[in-house]
Design a protein that fits this description.
By secondary structure, the protein is an all-alpha fold. Helix content is about 75%, strand content about 0%. It has a single domain, classed as ABC transporter involved in vitamin B12 uptake, BtuC. Helix 1 runs antiparallel to helix 14, helix 3 crosses helix 12 and helix 4 runs parallel beside helix 6.
């Protein structure tokens, strides 16, 4: 029983739960409004765009790749949405064009990585600047903010009778879909196999390049959806929307126990880490911490997310019983 309790205590999800409780306790002790319903709504509302971008990012990192361009795709999507709305197109058509833009941006990332064989870190670092630059080309330094009341209500309003933002109705189905794909479907097993050993996956008839390509398309499309949600929440399309969001997204995924080397991780851990990062930022905001302090806190979590899983795995391996020694023969045998 003690060995089982030790293994449970060393599970990464257990440590994340303890960290989340510690952050919540800190918020309760340092702010009188932390547990107010309006503050809970703020925590959830602000976290939704990062949360949905973290879903495909989890699959990409498990597959052994990375996407640094998600926040720039969000900004590009916001600019496209604003420009098409300003041109007088109906909102559903604007949304469709925006989602298509995100899919194409993700496809371009995927082509560079899978067809040209370029490192995903370098590719998406380049497209991070490229897509943000395109957003400025489309919208310039101005903003589009004359959206309909219903669209704005979707961004910062709450579901009737609850404190839950409308945008949670986007996150929850997406979370279930990605969880089933990763943990219950054959494609999930292929993603883990690719991250653990891409060459072995190829010999096992896994179409590694195709899987990675579609993961980048999914990432771009979801980032564009996050751009629509962000635009609705702030009621404004700007080329500089969501600058720096990629740090929080990647920090949440790695803090959730997903290995930066690929092949390991769960969406439950990522969901817990998203809650930790969102609550931590809220506590810092309530205590009037500036943006630099928040960046330091999230950056520190990013470093710990790489160091601590290795430490817990080493502790777990040390506590595993070694191979049983052969029984010593009895006297006279």
């Amino acid at each position: 029983m003690s060995a089982q309790l030790t293994r449970l205590a060393l599970r990464w999800e257990t440590l994340l739960t303890a960290l989340l409780l510690a952050v919540i306790l800190t918020g309760a002790l340092t702010s009188d409004v932390f547990f107010e319903g309006s503050n809970v709504t703020v925590i959830l509302g602000v976290a939704m765009e990062k949360a949905i971008m973290a879903l495909p990012m989890t699959l990409i990192i498990i597959a052994g790749e990375i996407d640094l361009s998600v926040a720039s795709i969000l900004g590009l999507a916001s600019a496209v949405l604003g420009k098409t709305w300003e041109a007088g197109l109906p909102l559903p058509l604007c949304i469709a064009i925006t989602l298509l833009t995100g899919a194409v941006a993700g496809l371009l990332n995927g082509i560079f990585v899978t067809r040209l064989g370029l490192p995903s870190l370098v590719v998406t670092l380049g497209t991070l600047s490229l897509y943000r630059g395109l957003a400025y080309v489309i919208l310039g330094d101005g903003a589009v903010s004359d959206y309909s009341r219903d669209f704005a209500e979707f961004g910062f309003g709450t579901i009737t009778g609850t404190r839950l933002p409308w945008t949670t109705l986007v996150f929850l189905p997406l979370f279930l879909i990605f969880a089933v794909v990763l943990h219950r479907a054959w494609i999930g097993r292929q993603i883990y196999a690719i991250g653990a050993n891409p060459e072995a996956a190829r010999f096992s008839a896994v179409r590694v390049a195709r899987v990675k390509l579609w993961l980048y398309v999914a990432s771009g499309t979801v980032a564009a959806l996050a751009g629509i949600m962000f635009t609705a929440r702030v009621s404004s399309s700007r080329a500089d929307n969501a600058v720096g969001f990629e740090l929080d997204v990647i920090a949440a995924v790695l803090l959730g126990g997903v290995s930066i080397f690929g092949g390991r991780g769960t969406l439950i851990g990522v969901a817990l880490s998203l809650a930790v990062v969102a609550t931590l930022r809220n506590v810092l905001n309530l205590n009037s911490s500036n943006a630099e302090i928040q960046s330091i806190a999230v950056g520190s979590l990013l470093i710990l997310s790489v160091l601590l899983p290795n430490l817990t795995r080493r502790l777990s391996s040390l506590r595993r019983p070694g191979p049983a020694s052969a029984p010593r023969p009895a006297p006279g045998d």
